[in-house]
């Protein structure tokens, strides 16, 4: 009798382990999908911000370039055209950021860094562990309890 009960409990235990493993896998997949969707939304917002900034900066650049060119011609001072050069670089960068392939070049460079210069990505004191987080949490909670007294 005990043997049959033990065998049945072992089977139930294995089924329960498989069920828990399956649920943990589903939870991990959902979490990864959610994090990826959040990353995509943040990147979309950043690109949208670049495009909106480009509209304002483009207008400023156009007005400044026309005004400086007119002033340089009117006063016969070509030095007045000098600010157009750095403003042009900023405008070109913003254009590349908003509509160009800057993001693809950045991704390629990031992949290269991850492959060949991985040591640059190490965190100070290494990757946080459960023990290091618990130690910090305990220190903070005991400090908060001490301060409340």
Describe the protein in words.
This is Plasminogen receptor, C-terminal lysine transmembrane protein. It comes from Labrus bergylta (ballan wrasse). This protein has one domain. The protein has four helices and no strands. Helix 1 packs antiparallel against helix 2. The longest helix is centred in the first third of the chain and has 74 residues. The mean pLDDT is 90.
Compose a concise summary of this entry.
The protein is mainly alpha-helical. The protein is built from four helices and no strands.
| Domain count | 1
Percentage of helical residues? over 70%
- As residue ranges, the low-confidence spans are none
What sort of overall outline do the alpha carbons produce when their principal axes are compared? Answer: elongated
Instruction: Calculate the mean pLDDT score and round it.
Output: 90
Cα-atom radius of gyration: 30 Å
Q: How many strands?
A: 0
End-to-end distance:
59 Å
Which structural category do the helix and sheet elements fall into?
mainly alpha
SSE order, as H and E?
A: HHHH
Oligomer: single chain
């Amino acid at each position: 009798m005990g043997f049959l009960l033990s065998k049945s409990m072992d089977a139930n235990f294995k089924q329960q382990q498989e069920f828990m493993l399956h649920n943990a896998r589903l939870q991990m997949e959902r979490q990864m999908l959610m994090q990826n969707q959040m990353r995509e939304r943040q990147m979309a917002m950043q690109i949208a911000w670049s495009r909106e900034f480009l509209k304002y900066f483009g207008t400023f650049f156009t007005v400044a370039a026309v005004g400086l060119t007119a002033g340089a011609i009117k006063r016969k001072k070509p030095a007045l055209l000098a600010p157009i050069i750095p403003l042009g670089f900023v405008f070109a960068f913003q254009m590349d950021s908003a509509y160009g392939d800057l993001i693809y070049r950045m991704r390629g460079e990031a992949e290269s860094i991850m492959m060949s210069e991985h040591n640059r990505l190490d965190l100070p004191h290494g990757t946080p562990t459960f023990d290091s987080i618990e130690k910090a949490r305990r220190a903070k909670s005991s400090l908060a309890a001490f301060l409340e007294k």
